[in-house]
Amino acid sequence: MERNCVACGMPMREPEDFALGDTSRDYCVHCMREDGSMQSFDEKRVGLAAFIVKTQGFDEIAALPLAEAMMRKLPAWAGHFKA
Question: Which of 19, 43, 55, 73 could form a disulfide with 39 if both were Cys (CB 3.0 to 4.6 A apart)?
Answer without folding.
Answer: 43
